[in-house]
Design goal:
Elements (H helix, E strand, L loop, with lengths): L2 E5 L13 E4 H4 L4 H12 L7 E6 L5 H14 L4 E9 L2 H10 L4 E5 L11 E7 L8 H11 L4 E5 L10 E5 L2 E6 L3 H10 L2 H9 L5 E4 L5 H12 L7 E2 L20 H6 L8 E4 L8 E4 L2 E3 L1 H11 L12 E5 L5 H9 L2 E5 L7 H5 L5 E4 L3 E4 L7 H15 L3 H12 L1 E12 L1 H18 L3 E2 L2 E8 L2 E2 L6 E2 L4 E5 L4 E6 L7 E11 L9 H4 L1 H11 L1 H5 L6 E2 L1
Parallel strand pairs: 3-4, 3-5, 4-9, 10-11, 10-12, 15-16, 15-17
Antiparallel strand pairs: 1-7, 2-6, 5-6, 8-9, 12-13, 13-14, 17-18, 19-26, 19-27, 20-21, 21-24, 22-23, 24-25, 25-26
Helix pairs in contact: 2-3, 2-5, 7-13, 10-11
The structure holds alpha-D-glucose-1-phosphate-6-vanadate (VG1) and cobalt (II) ion.
The site of alpha-D-glucose-1-phosphate-6-vanadate (VG1) has 18 residues, from loops.
């Protein structure tokens, strides 16, 4: 096993987006593409030398190949030990937990999350720091800068390692340990939630639920936790076998992509509880019978009810939400008298707040929620939180949320995505809005007066780092908002995201249909941003 140095050339545009570097598999297959990025991680993250690294992915196409490449490079770059999930599998939250539990210096997560998988679909790579969380912008920027200058990478002349059996082996001077991807994570969940109460809920035989793993990484985790440890009937977990192409679907837990599950929750025979997670296991969708819990509401309900969950019984210190997430959680934080933070999109911005003990819970509108138990959002954690809540309150999902609205008011919320639009047209649309911004405050948009309009910039309260250009925010009187931003996870053209929110205090008006309630704002937003003229699209591709 000889170390070797391979001469290489930079690839333009290896800049990580909202959550790591995501490209088509075909791009990652170009000779040197993955290797360059991995070498840039080792070149810039010096503490990995002589240290421990965790590696795992969501099992999508190219996962195994990429892991073997990374192992050879790690060995040639002086990493002392790599922990890798069996079969190359680690959900994103389980990877975060493994980094923290083993005191590793970092981790490499292989996933394109909710994007489709397969030879013609997407792949991704992300570096997580020693706190278990996605690297902060300073680190991702340093890695990117290195990729643009790189001229050689180190690897080892060696064959593939067996990743399918637990145990230790050696690659050159580096130790490799294949670890159980599920056990530690399942144990952690057992420390946070009242498993006894949830077991009781299932044992009663009345309560019916399904968890849709969407043929992605959470299948084995959900079977172990929900069926084996909590005693839900076999078959509670659907699509539970991870497939390299996720069965040809988008492993994206929302009303558009999890239709099979949505249908099972409808009507008088509908399930009491339906839940789903995404490709890498960090997202969640929560459904009751004929009831969809928006992720923004889910965060607010969790914050308001955290004291009912053993892991949070002593109360929560604060909450954070990404900027486009609805302001429902803010109202709970205000009433509890705890800290409340608005961060840019992407989990990396929660890391400092969690590390500094300023927040306990955080979430995003994009079906992500989590807590200080790891440093990633966590799909199954959210599902177990809701199960624990249902067991504790003995009420339906819908009743719990409607009760929440009565207490706090309802934030109607929707996101409209225009996918794969022309990148220049999308950039032009954002520029157009930026030009308008300074003229908007104090004027009227339809029936609404504009209270503020800005391009969101964030100063991290812990380390004072500054992030600019994080999306256009237009706040309207009465708590309504319009938010526009471009996705940082797509692999084709640009994706425009339009986020809309309005606030309704009157319980008599809480039962309106969401799109209808937001219709006036939808019109204003389309008009203001000239969406149809500029993108050629009359309708969004996905509404969540
Ligand atoms: C999207 C979501 C964002 C999320 C990110 C990663 O980013 O909007 O909230 O953090 O995906 O999610 P964007 O830039 O496309 O809007 V996932 O489940 O990678 O890890
Ligand atoms: Co994900």
């Amino acid at each position: 096993m000889e170390p070797k140095v391979v001469v290489t050339q930079p690839f333009p545009g290896q800049r990580p987006g909202t959550s790591g570097l995501r490209k088509k598999v075909k791009v990652f297959q170009e000779p040197g593409y993955l290797e360059n990025f991995v070498q840039a991680i080792f070149d810039t993250q010096k503490e990995l030398g002589g240290g421990v690294l965790v590696v795992g992915g969501d099992g999508r196409y190219y996962n195994r190949t990429a892991i073997q490449t990374i192992l050879r490079q790690a060995a040639a770059n002086g990493i002392a030990k790599v922990l890798v999930g069996r079969g190359g599998i680690l959900s994103t939250p389980a990877c975060s937990h493994a980094i923290r539990k083993h005191g590793a210096q970092g981790g490499i997560v292989l996933s394109a999350s909710h994007n489709p998988g397969g030879p013609d679909e997407d792949f991704g790579i992300k570096f997580n720091a020693a706190n278990g969380g996605p690297a902060p912008e300073s680190v991702t920027e340093a890695i990117y800068q290195r990729t643009q200058k790189i001229d050689r990478y180190r690897t080892l002349e060696a064959g593939d390692l067996d990743l399918d059996h637990l145990g230790a082996s050696q690659l050159g001077k580096m130790a490799v340990q294949v670890i159980d991807p599920v056990a530690d994570y399942a144990d952690l969940m057992g420390t946070l939630f009242d498993f006894e109460a949830i077991r009781h809920l299932f044992a009663g035989g009345q309560f019916r639920m399904k968890f849709d793993a969407m043929s992605a990484v959470t299948g084995p985790y959900a079977v172990e936790i929900i069926e084996n440890r909590l005693g839900a009937p076999p078959g509670t977990v659907m699509n539970g076998t991870p497939l390299e192409d996720f069965g040809g679907h988008h492993p994206d837990p929302n009303l558009a992509h999890a239709q099979e599950l949505v249908a099972l929750c409808q009507g008088t025979e509908g399930l009491d509880f339906g839940a789903a997670s995404d490709g890498d296991g960090d997202r969640n969708m929560i459904l009751g019978r004929d009831f969809f819990v928006t992720p923004s509401d889910s965060l607010a309900v969790m914050a308001a009810n955290a004291h009912l969950i053993p892991g949070y019984a002593e109360g929560i210190v604060g909450v954070a939400r990404s900027m486009p997430t609805s302001q429902a959680a803010d109202r709970v934080a205000e009433r509890l008298g705890i800290g409340c933070y608005e961060t840019p999109t992407g989990w990396k911005f929660f890391g400092n707040l969690l590390d500094a003990g300023r927040i306990t819970l955080c979430g995003e509108e994009s079906f992500g929620s989590g807590s200080d138990h790891v440093r990633e959002k966590d799909g199954l954690w959210a599902v177990l939180f809701w199960l624990n809540l249902l067991a504790a309150r003995q009420e339906s999902v819908g009743d719990i949320v409607r009760d929440h609205w009565r207490r706090y008011g309802r934030n109607f919320y929707t996101r409209h995505d225009y996918e794969a639009v022309d990148a220049q047209a999308a950039a032009g649309l954002m520029d157009h809005l930026r030009v308008l911004l300074p003229t908007l405050t104090g004027t009227r948009l339809g029936a609404y007066k504009v209270s503020y309009a800005d391009d969101f910039a964030y100063i991290d309260p812990v380390d004072a780092s500054r992030s600019e250009g994080q999306g256009i925010r237009i706040g309207l009187e009465g708590g309504s908002r319009l938010v526009f931003r471009l996705s940082g996870t797509g692999t084709q053209g640009a994706t425009l995201r339009l986020y809309l929110e309005s606030y309704e205090a009157d319980p008599a008006r809480h039962d309106q249909e969401t799109q209808a309630a937001l219709a006036p704002l939808i019109l204003i937003a389309n008009d203001l941003a000239q969406i149809q003229e500029r993108t050629g699209r009359a309708q969004p591709d996905v509404i969540t």
